[in-house]
Every structure is written in C-alpha cells, then in structure tokens.
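I had to read the description of the data format several times before I understood it. The format is easy to grasp once an entry is in front of the reader. For illustration, here is how one protein appears when written out as sequence plus structure tokens:
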Amino acid sequence: MNEDWEQRTTAAWATLDEYDEAHAAGFRAVIDTLVAELPDGSPYGPFEQACAWDSTGRSDKAVPLYREALARGLGGYRGRRAKIQLSSSLRNLGQAEEGVKLLTPELDAPSDELDDAVRACLALCLSGLGRDREGLSLVLGALAAHLPRYQRSMANYARLLTEPEG
C-alpha cells in the first residue's frame, strides 16, 4: 500500500453516493480492483471490501471480512474503525451482545476522533439489548463535551443514568 493507492481508494469512496442500490455491485467491483493490487495477506483488503459490502447494505457479507481483517492484524485507526463497523453490522444482524463485547474495551483505548463513534455504536448495541439507560448515558456523555454550555450538568446526568440509586 502506498500514497497513490490511498488516494485512489479515497477517490473511489468519494463516489459511493453515485451508485444506487441497483448498481451497488459496480461500486464493490471498483473496491475489489483496488484490493487486488494489495499484497496477499494484507489486512487492508478485507477491511475495504467489508466497508464496501456494509456501505451497500449487506452487513451479512461484511461481518466475515471485518473479522478477517482484524485476524490479519488490522490495527490503529483502521482497526478501530473495523471494530466500530463490525459492531454495527453485528447489531444489524441481531447479535448486539457480541457488538457490546467488541466495543466495550474501546472505551478505555487511547482517545482519538473515533471516541464518539465508539460510544454511539455501543449505545445502539446496548439499546438493542434493552439496556437503553446505559446507551443514553454513553450518548449524553459524548454529547456533553461538544455543548457550548451545560457540559458539567449533562455529564452528571449521563453518570446518574447508570449509577445505582441510593
């Protein structure tokens, strides 16, 4: 993988909205062509293919590819994205508990721009399990940091949603 490949991949993703549902296979073919340029065993290939399946409404096809990318050692920023997206796909397939198990450790991972996405997706997985208060707590806690005022109050409300009454 090099800068040229990255740029062409970014350009391909920028065209996603040009493909309607009937032409989703065409978009996936563009991604497959780029993936074919990668060395055998690269974790980037199954990750990009998983994203393409996921983005065209096929979580069922994306899940094994996300798993393969992670098993091949996909780490860093893309690895975190894979965990977020895999959890979302699992929730879509009725496997929210597995999504919770995958994302919960990410709450303690080094902070980056994906922190709020982790919390949002984890909240959806929790809600899928009927654990709405925990999910709302995560979302309010993430939102609090972005508010121009009331950050402290919202953070406290978020905490109180999951604290035992006493």
Observations:
- The first helix runs from residue 3 to 13.
- The chain has nine helices and no strands.
- The mean pLDDT is 95.
